[in-house]
Amino acid sequence: MIESKATKLLLASYILLVIWWLYIQFLRTTDSPVNYWFVFAYGLVPLFGGINGLFLSRKWGSFKSAMGSAVLYLSLGLITWGIGETIWSYYILGLNVEIPYPSLADASFILSWPLWSMGVINLSKATGIKFSLRNVRGKLLLLVVPFLVISASYYLLYVVARDSTIDLSSEYLKLFFDLLYPIWDVILLTLVLLVYGLSFGFLGGRFKFPITLILLGFVVNYFADMGLSYQSTVETFYNGGFVDLLFASAMFLLTYGTNALDVKYSDSVRSGSS
């Protein structure tokens, strides 16, 4: 495990957030300030963690290296997600109104997916994925993984989460986000599984742990999105519930992993993955 002041602070923050979430469950409250402030609090983790990640990317040379680009894009995705969560909280805590859908929060959230996708693509370049594509196993994964993800996502995100319905008669902007969220979930999960599957043999040194955390964070975020869609469909979602714990966990994993990719530990990375 790579420990710096930033990662130690992130770990401490996550522990406090879990304790906070357990307190909410103990109170059995679904519509009180303690719920809404919890959502605001965990949104600060990716926001400030992403800002720190921008400084880390400069140590790698930013766009001059694959790892620098990966850290930069991942950090920007964290920042836009954190801004989205802050806007979400402002509607409730500042304006005291029901959150419209779609809203400015959704506009910020959705920016995270293409940024994260670019981060994962650059991460693949830094982990030796191109070498795996030369063998039969790599080529087979390239064909099988997208098929499995699309098939599973159709069932989980459409059949289960949305009860096999999408309201095509809704306004264009709402329909746009209804379609874009699951599409980006599928794209990102496919990229993540491909990167992990194809680069597994090349992940070594002290960066194996943070990269694994990042990829795991995207998987958790996928299921958090699925849970949000499902609970919204059956009208059981509330701020501070289990779905928010999943989002808080996903953002912690992504933020911790990104901030652990510090160039000062690069001497422990295999030369083939730099």
UniProtKB/TrEMBL annotation:
<feature type="transmembrane region" description="Helical">
    <location>
        <begin position="7"/>
        <end position="24"/>
    </location>
</feature>
<protein>
    <recommendedName>
        <fullName>Histidine kinase N-terminal 7TM region domain-containing protein</fullName>
    </recommendedName>
</protein>
<feature type="transmembrane region" description="Helical">
    <location>
        <begin position="207"/>
        <end position="224"/>
    </location>
</feature>
<feature type="transmembrane region" description="Helical">
    <location>
        <begin position="236"/>
        <end position="256"/>
    </location>
</feature>
<feature type="transmembrane region" description="Helical">
    <location>
        <begin position="181"/>
        <end position="200"/>
    </location>
</feature>
<keyword id="KW-1133">Transmembrane helix</keyword>
<feature type="transmembrane region" description="Helical">
    <location>
        <begin position="36"/>
        <end position="58"/>
    </location>
</feature>
<feature type="transmembrane region" description="Helical">
    <location>
        <begin position="70"/>
        <end position="93"/>
    </location>
</feature>
<keyword id="KW-0472">Membrane</keyword>
<keyword id="KW-0812">Transmembrane</keyword>
<feature type="transmembrane region" description="Helical">
    <location>
        <begin position="140"/>
        <end position="161"/>
    </location>
</feature>
